[in-house]
Amino acid sequence: MNNSKIWLSSPHMGGKELLYVQEAFDTNWIAPLGPNVNGFELDLEKYLDHEIHVGALSSGTAAIHLALVLLGVKENDEVICQSMTFSASANPILYQGAIPVFIDSESETWNMCPKALEDAIIDRLAKGKKPKAIIAVHLYGMPFDVDAIQFVANKYQIPVIEDSAEALGSTFKGRKCGTFGDFGILSFNGNKIITTSGGGALVTKTKELKEKGVFFATQSRDNAPHYQHSEIGYNYRMSNICAGIGRGQMEVLDKHVALRGAMNQFYKDYFAAIEGVTVFTEPNSDYKSNHWLSAIVMQPEKLNGRTREDLRLALEQQNIESRPLWKPMHLQPIFEKYPYYGKHVAESLFEDGLCLPSGSNITDIERERIKQTFDLFFNK
Ligand SMILES: *Cc1c(COP(=O)(O)O)cnc(C)c1O
Q: Which option is the CATH number for 17-251: 3.40.640.10, 3.40.1010.20, 3.40.50.300, 3.30.200.100?
């Protein structure tokens, strides 16, 4: 049997990407600007289908950083951030010399708990500091409770940065993720639902904010014949080559969402019969995940003591990649000294949760290999 590696989430080209890249070569637009960059931004604006503007950048991390810069976050300011996430949500807070304040998850969406968020805001205000921004994440493509988080943010007048890096194609009450926050951010890293090999985007509510973001992203060059600068600049714009890949990928985005959904259904069908394993699922019909990653939670007490680490090793034996859920930021050596609000929801998800192969390019034969490995492990 072919034993080639089955990845958690690997790049999946649609076929048209090379045409856009070829066009960039043919017209010599080999630069961090050009027709593909503009075209990719328009494609994204059309797809997100709301009153928003999109600036294509070199990464999702750069987009979060620029959102913080645009919100005026400075040294010693406090920024609230979901603890259960990838480190890229939180690192830009430190780039600004600001202080992250981490928030636990709720068990329904695994995302920022609105109750813990409000507790944190009340306590930070009592300590004399109003948080400058809230970074909320749609983890693994699952929308956070947009209504509840926005309610708290509005009540205390704190802007929201919506980290939609994993959630392009997800919706909440029919509206696309990435369009809710004061700023939204997207990622096109190699492992995301579509990729530009590496890239990201900043989603803004006005054209002026997009232009200001692009200004910062292109070294903050003032309007002058010589190079003139009055503000700190960054080199964060997307390459016209990468944007060409992105334009091709936009043509298959909806197909990728459907295929990842089918992968998720495969796991739901399989684990329906296994007590002690729960597949991560939308809490109700307001939520529609793009199923970027499918994940399970295991209860060792119902599985003869066997843990998610045992299953991970069994899969690894068969050259099948899986990974524990994100280790919460408040438990990370680089972030553990910062304030944290909540209980142990994120921590216990990390203890018992596992992400499974979820790519849109996984074949029937590969699914069969995954199934056989499960059959052996769960004695079916
Ligand atoms: C991937 C990711 C990012 C960062 O995106 P890059 O394009 O890799 O810089 C930010 N937040 C989350 C939740 C992510 O998964």
A: 3.40.640.10
